[in-house]
């Protein structure tokens, strides 16, 4: 009891705080609105209305005689204080009109009419509540690939028990059935003819051919018929891991007449699989490039375009599920559960449950998923209008609320959810009735239609029939039939007022888009946008747009052409004149191979590519590109006349330095070149501001090409002679040393043992003859031959 009282006290306190905040915000808004409405830049009634919903325009002719035109615009209360009669104040009302409330409706109100003007916004409450017992249509979409055999067997016996369990939530429950595998094309299936007919031929099992989607049973109350159809099912097979689930879901959602979805029922699409689904771009693996057209393609209950159209995108699937109020329940077995968990936020009204082995928990999974779907109410906003915004704040039964929240959970049957709807108009893109916004609680078959009536221009109508009213700034020809120039404005030259309405004598009066009255242009009204300017030469619609902005937001539309602001150019003023984005690190414009257009490099050399034209595998090096330029200077001895001539034919400037310059910097491209005097020079490219220059350096030793080869031969001969002489000298030294020391120990040993030395039979002497290199002679010395 105490907690309840505290809760009520807290709610009352919050309401007081909210009221104080709103009052403070209103005062601040009034102060800022007064500044907007009295701006000196206001020059017309329409301009006044665009300043804000609080602004009004006084079109009373004698109001503030002699005052500036912008003083006709102000807060309505201020205009009345200044002496403007309320009947002469142009200030369209902003209001909300709701139709009678229907007590049997789940969404109240069903029709709302809003009157808006630029800068205005309105609020209303949308009430949504779930019925306790609701008709339910459940369509089973089952993956019948070989890995789903056990789940398919379980499904054959679950139909009756599931129907019994759903009686707790609905007295009108219907079941339907369809199957899918994958697109029957390579590489998804084996296209060998026997495999097409029977994908399980390797296992001596008779399987069904692979198929994208086959509708087996329309929604029916007969559980017996559902069980019979399921028992007739046989598994199929394919090659890759993902299946064609999205293809099948899309057809089940859009083929309303085949599935027989009932308008008054909850639509549940139960998808049973153990693998992820192919996505849209996967179809290109099979050479299928035609995007899905979003239509139903069932012929004889079989998806006929499965091999011709891509898989639908997730966005397309989400759109069709929402459009047909279909909840998706994914019953997933195996490791792919997390894949579908990531998918759920992308599909409205979708839940995922983990399917246990052999689908033993299928009945409980479906019931729990249905309870979760019934416990949530989410509001969707459809058919938004350009320039009009819609904000939604859900007020849940527990009192919780948060700006931008469009969903409440943990609801019980018959509990109500309130949605605070704010609709505002930022700017006018067209006027009139015919514009609608739809507020749809997802999964419900009821929609609230909101009609938007926009007041975008001044009508300046008078309360009395005898006093024709006009806005005094943008008068239509019908309002000015009795308009006459003042006596002071009359001149002897009747053409003078007309000339005042021409920008020049060659142009039509008021640019052909207005009426010249008393030497001033009264511009025409156009449903496309505003026409303005001294000669009606400016408008807001006839010039090119860029990214949704007239003249790219960088210019004015004058006489159908964009006049760009400083720093911008191009037909729609979208091109910056700056070339900073086209400069390389060494300050070269587009790497010297292109020009900068609209802040981007356009390569003039067809061999180059890259953002800065820096890629050119087949281009000549800088050495080859500038060799002729350098030779022009070197061969003409840098005479003043020739230098000027060379500089006029060479894009860079050339500078000569009579000394060697040796740099290892990577920014320099060094090149050697021989001159006519057979001397070698080096030139290098040196970047400078706005381009680059060539600097030429001369080697001080200046080795000529004529002396280069003989010197090399002489050096080689001298090297050989010196080597031979060194060997001879070394030999003489060795012999001299041996002579000084006497005979060698070997010779002494030989002389001292001459009589005792015998040649044995093993000693051989081999002689090779030049004329007969293959023969050999062996000479043996007898033992007694001493």
Descriptive notes:
By secondary structure, the chain is α+β, with helices and mostly antiparallel strands. It has seven domains: 16-92, ligand-binding face of the semaphorins, domain 2, CATH 3.30.1680; 96-130 and 379-454, Immunoglobulin-like (Sandwich); 136-374, Rossmann fold (3-Layer(aba) Sandwich); 492-575, Laminin, CATH 2.10.25; 578-617, Laminin, CATH 2.10.25; 622-698, Hormone receptor fold (Irregular), CATH 4.10.1240; 715-786, no CATH class. Helix content is 25%, strand content 23%. The protein contains 16 helices and 37 strands. The strands form twelve sheets. The protein has a six-stranded mixed sheet, with no helix packed on it. Helix 4 packs antiparallel against helix 6 (223-231) and helix 7 runs parallel beside helix 9. It is flat, with a radius of gyration of 48 Å. 30% of the residues are buried.
């Amino acid at each position: 009891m105490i907690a309840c009282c505290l809760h009520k006290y807290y709610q009352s306190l919050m309401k007081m705080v909210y009221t104080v905040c709103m009052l403070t915000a209103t005062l601040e808004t009034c102060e800022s609105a007064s500044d907007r409405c009295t701006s000196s830049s206001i020059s017309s009634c329409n301009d006044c209305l665009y300043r804000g919903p609080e602004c009004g325009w006084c079109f009373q002719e004698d109001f503030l005689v002699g005052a500036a035109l912008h003083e006709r615009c102000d807060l309505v209360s201020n205009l009345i204080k200044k002496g403007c009669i309320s009947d002469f104040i142009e200030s369209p009302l902003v209001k909300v009109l709701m139709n009678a409330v229907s007590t049997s409706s789940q969404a109240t109100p069903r029709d709302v009419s809003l009157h808006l003007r630029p800068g205005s916004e309105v609020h209303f409450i949308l009430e949504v509540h779930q019925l306790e017992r609701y008709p339910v249509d459940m369509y089973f979409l089952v993956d019948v690939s070989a890995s789903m055999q056990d789940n398919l067997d379980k499904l054959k016996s679950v139909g009756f028990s599931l129907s019994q369990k759903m009686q707790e939530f609905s007295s009108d429950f219907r079941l339907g059935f369809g199957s899918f595998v994958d697109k029957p094309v390579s590489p998804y299936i084996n296209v060998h003819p026997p495999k097409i007919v029977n994908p399980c031929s390797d296992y001596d099992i008779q399987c069904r051919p692979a198929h994208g989607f086959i509708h087996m049973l329309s929604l029916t109350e007969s559980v017996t018929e559902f069980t019979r159809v399921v028992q007739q099912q046989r598994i199929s097979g394919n090659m890759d891991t993902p299946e064609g689930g999205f293809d099948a879901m899309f057809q089940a959602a859009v083929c309303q007449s085949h599935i027989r979805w009932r308008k008054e029922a909850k639509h549940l699409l139960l998808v049973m699989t153990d693998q992820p689904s192919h996505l849209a771009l996967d179809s290109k693996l099979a050479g299928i490039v035609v995007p899905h057209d979003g239509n139903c393609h069932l012929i004889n209950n079989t998806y006929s375009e499965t091999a011709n159209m891509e898989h639908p995108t997730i966005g397309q699937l989400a759109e069709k599920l929402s459009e047909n109020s279909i909840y998706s329940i994914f019953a997933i077995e195996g490791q792919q559960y997390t894949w579908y968990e990531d998918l759920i936020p992308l599909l409205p009204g979708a839940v995922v449950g983990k399917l246990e082995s052999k689908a033993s928990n299928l009945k409980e999974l479906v019931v729990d998923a249905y309870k979760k779907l019934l416990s949530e109410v989410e509001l969707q906003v459809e058919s938004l209008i350009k320039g009009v915004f819609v904000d939604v704040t859900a007020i849940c039964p527990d009192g919780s609320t948060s700006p931008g929240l469009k969903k409440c959970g943990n609801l019980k049957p018959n509990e109500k959810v309130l949605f605070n709807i704010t609709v505002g108009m930022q700017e006018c893109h067209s006027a009139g009735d015919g514009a609608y916004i739809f507020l749809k609680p997802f999964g419900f078959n009821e929609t609230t239609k909101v009609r938007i009536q926009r007041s975008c221009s001044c009508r300046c109508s008078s309360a009395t029939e005898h006093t024709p009213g006009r806005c005094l700034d943008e008068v239509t020809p019908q309002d000015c039939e009795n308009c006459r120039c003042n006596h002071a404005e009359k001149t002897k030259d009747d053409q003078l007022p007309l000339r005042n309405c021409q920008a020049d004598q060659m142009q039509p009066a008021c640019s052909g888009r207005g009426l010249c009255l008393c030497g001033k242009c009264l511009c025409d009204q156009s449903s496309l946008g505003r026409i303005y300017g001294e000669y009606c030469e400016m408008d807001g619609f006839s010039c090119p747009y860029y990214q949704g902005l007239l003249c790219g937001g960088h210019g004015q539309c004058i006489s159908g052409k964009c006049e760009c602001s400083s720093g911008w150019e191009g037909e729609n003023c979208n091109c910056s004149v700056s070339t900073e984005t086209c400069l390389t690190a060494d300050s070269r414009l587009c790497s010297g191979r292109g020009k900068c257009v609209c802040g981007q490099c356009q390569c003039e050399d067809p061999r180059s590519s890259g953002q800065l034209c820096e890629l050119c595998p087949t281009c000549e090096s800088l050495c080859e590109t500038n060799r002729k330029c350098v030779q022009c200077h070197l061969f003409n001895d840098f005479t003043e006349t020739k230098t000027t001539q060379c500089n006029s034919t060479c894009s860079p400037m050339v500078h000569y330095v009579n000394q060697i310059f040796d740099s290892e910097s990577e920014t320099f491209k060094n090149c050697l070149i021989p001159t006519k005097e057979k001397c070698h020079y080096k030139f290098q490219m040196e970047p400078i501001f706005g381009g680059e220059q060539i600097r030429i350096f001369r080697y001080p030793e200046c080795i000529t090409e004529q002396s280069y080869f003989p010197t090399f031969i002489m050096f080689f001969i001298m090297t050989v002679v010196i080597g031979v002489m060194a060997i001879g000298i070394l030999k003489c030294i060795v012999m001299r040393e041996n002579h000084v020391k006497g005979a060698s120990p070997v010779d002494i040993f030989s002389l001292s043992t001459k009589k005792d030395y015998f040649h044995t039979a093993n000693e051989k002497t081999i002689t090779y003859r030049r004329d007969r290199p293959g023969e050999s002679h062996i000479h043996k010395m007898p033992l007694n031959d001493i």
